[in-house]
Design a protein that fits this description.
Shape: globular
Strand order of the largest sheet: 1-2
Strand content: 5-15%
Order of helices and strands: EEHHHHH
Helix content: 55-70%
Number of helices: 5
Largest sheet: 2 strands, antiparallel
Radius of gyration: 18 Å
Structural class: mainly alpha
Length: about 120
């Protein structure tokens, strides 16, 4: 048997105002929306004005879906987040998840490299 195991990351904690918010890894069912929202957000941060970024984030709704899926905030709390706070929180969700994905990809590459046997 193999000694390989899949690790589940622990939630990270960020502070929104005076409240501690747990940031969880993105679920597979939300991964497509997460990827879409993250790529749009990261692209717009470097090219758009704040007003354009806020307008898109509010109109698309993806930001609130991802914050709901990846934090312990409920819908009522998310709906009342100011848009700049919601975008900052989404950036934290991206940071936490990208670090985990980077580690998982590195571990997978190592495991695959070790699993390959030399050809005879």
């Amino acid at each position: 048997m193999s000694d390989l195991k899949i690790l589940f990351p622990e939630p990270a904690v960020v502070h929104v105002g005076n409240r501690a918010v747990a940031v969880r890894p993105v679920d597979l069912r939300h991964f497509e929306r997460f990827s879409e929202a993250a790529s749009v957000l990261l692209g717009m941060i470097s090219t758009e004005s704040r007003v354009g970024l806020y307008a898109h984030a509010r109109q698309s709704g993806a930001l609130r879906v991802i914050i709901g899926a990846c934090t312990d905030l409920n819908r009522w709390q998310i709906a009342r987040l100011p848009m700049p706070v919601a975008i900052k929180l989404m950036a934290e969700v991206i940071k936490v998840n990208s670090a985990f994905f980077d580690e998982a990809l590195a571990a997978a590459a190592t495991a695959l490299a070790g699993a390959k046997s030399p050809s005879a």
